[in-house]
Amino acid sequence: MKKKVVIALGHRALGTTFPEQQIAVKESAKVLADMIEEGCQLIITHSNAPQVGMIHTAMNEFAHFHTDFTGAPMSVCSAMSQGYIGYDLQNAIREELGKRGIYKTVSTILTQVLVDPYDEAFYHPVKVIGRYMTKEEAEKEEAKGNHVVEETGGRYRRIVSAPRPQGIIEIDAINALSDAGQIVIACGGGGIPVMAQGNALKGASAIIEKDYAAGKLAELTNADVLMILTNDEKVEIDLHTEHPTELDTITVEQAKEYIDQKQFGAAAMLPKIQASVDFLEKGTGREAIITNLEHAVAALEGKTGTRIV
Known about the structure:
Low-confidence stretches: none
């Protein structure tokens, strides 16, 4: 049996602009192909922060100047980002594998992720997104029930919630493709946030943290490894002291202690650690690895990175 690995690509693996993304995914594809050659069955997810912000801004700027059109809701912007990132990423992986004589299907699944409408996160929005607005425009947004935050210089921007993922709507399709030996790209950008309304699904005005979605994806695909890629080779604690410490291998209990000590930044490292803990507590014989793209293969071999077991 091949080792099943859910790998979450961060911003650096994708770039920001259209040209940057096309270059970045080719470099990322080389690392992913190395892992496939090492015998991994990959399920890939990724961030979308610059991309979804660009799409949201573009769609709403267009609607602002063309009053016959409406702005795109967050769920639609998330769907667009999944498609456009998946398009470049799957083609880059396919091309790289072809160069190595490996012929596997690479598929991007447009993925909806279920959120709880009563999640406390909806009362405390944290993700700033979209175009800058005047005070008058901001007031109109608030009148529609949207949240707005004021930034320096008297400019305003939309701010949305980040609820926790409760389930993955397309999980059966993801598992079927993975079990058939295909490489699957899913839950891009944390997934399209949706709420169940009877038999229907309604898009939520939110963004799902991609690390939590990656953990849920790893849980529901019964992965052996959850690998979350970030900027650094290893996780550090005591960052604000004269002697920061890199973490090699830690237990779930140690990870929880560091969380209680507030060792991890709430917007950066904390979701990665918490998602890892959640994944590990839902099964046995699993491990979580946090490292950067450059050291992903070495970390999988146990030579570097931060490992939680």
